[in-house]
Write a structure and sequence with these properties.
Strand order of the largest sheet: 1-2-6-5
CATH architecture of one domain: 3-Layer(aba) Sandwich
Order of helices and strands: HHHEHHHEEEHEHEH
Strand content: 5-15%
Number of strands: 6
Largest sheet: 4 strands, antiparallel
Mean pLDDT: 91
Distance between the termini: 17 Å
Shape: globular
CATH class of one domain: Alpha Beta
Structural class: alpha+beta
CATH topology of one domain: NADH Oxidase
Number of helices: 9
Radius of gyration: 21 Å
Length: about 240
């Protein structure tokens, strides 16, 4: 097996135009790789979406660390087209809850969500009441930046925005779980009210909302099983 490319990367021309640095990478033996992978898999398998939050405060620094970790995500052309808005102000959280519940009331009670959709949600026990948005010590709203707004008023295109934000959201969830916090991905539809409530610019659009905190000691979660590996993986050898 060869580990060398037949062509130089970066090319001398590319390296002359843009800075490159040596990759920091620790090569592990296979046994350590397997051990790390199994520990991570076992830990992540305990992750559950939580709707019952304790009122105990969460230090802001933990939220900052999780957002910082999420921002290591790869993104189209390295545009990093995301903004994480972190809210602990009780009045803002209440306003978010009121607006979200109104949208969800229309979804659930006025059939904006069709019967098939509501049947799919039935095992989760959800309805239009979203008290967790007010009770959780933090709400973080991830906004996707549809384009970059320059200081001179010009626009610059962002690439693969939804894919980039989806990867960042996944890392954010993993970071929170790794540090011992619980969260829930909440996407009231439509979510345009968040742009207004949080005074975000026109180039941003809400992608997903995360209430964050410690679960209540008496928290119950749906008794669900995840698909086994052979249902989610196809191998071509």
């Amino acid at each position: 097996m060869t580990t060398d490319y037949e062509f130089p990367y970066p090319s001398p021309e590319l390296a002359a135009q843009h800075p490159f640095v040596p990759l920091e990478f620790e090569r592990l033996d296979e046994a350590e790789m397997v051990a790390r992978a199994e520990r991570f898999r076992a830990h992540m398998s305990t992750r559950r979406s939580v709707r019952m939050f304790a009122s105990e405060p969460v230090p802001r620094h933990l939220i900052e660390l999780a957002i910082d970790a999420a921002s290591t995500a790869p993104s189209g052309a390295h545009k990093q087209p995301w903004t994480f808005v972190a809210i602990s102000d009780p009045s803002v959280k209440r306003a978010i809850r009121m607006a979200a519940e109104e949208e969800e009331r229309v979804n659930y009670l006025e059939n904006r969500m069709n019967d098939e959709w509501q049947q799919a949600l039935a095992p989760l026990g959800t309805d239009h009441h979203k008290e967790f948005l007010e009770r959780a010590p933090w709400i973080v709203v991830l906004f996707e930046q549809r384009y970059e707004q320059l200081a001179n008023g010009d626009r610059r295109k962002n690439y693969y925005v939804k894919e980039s934000c989806g990867i960042a959201a996944g890392l954010f969830i993993a970071a929170l779980h790794h540090m011992g916090l619980a969260t829930l991905t909440h996407t009231p539809s439509p979510m345009a009210f968040l742009t207004t409530l949080l005074a975000r610019p026109d180039n941003e659009r809400p992608f997903v909302m995360f209430p964050i905190g410690y679960p209540m000691p008496s928290t119950l979660v749906p008794d669900l099983a995840r698909k086994p590996l052979d249902e989610v993986m196809v191998v071509l050898e």
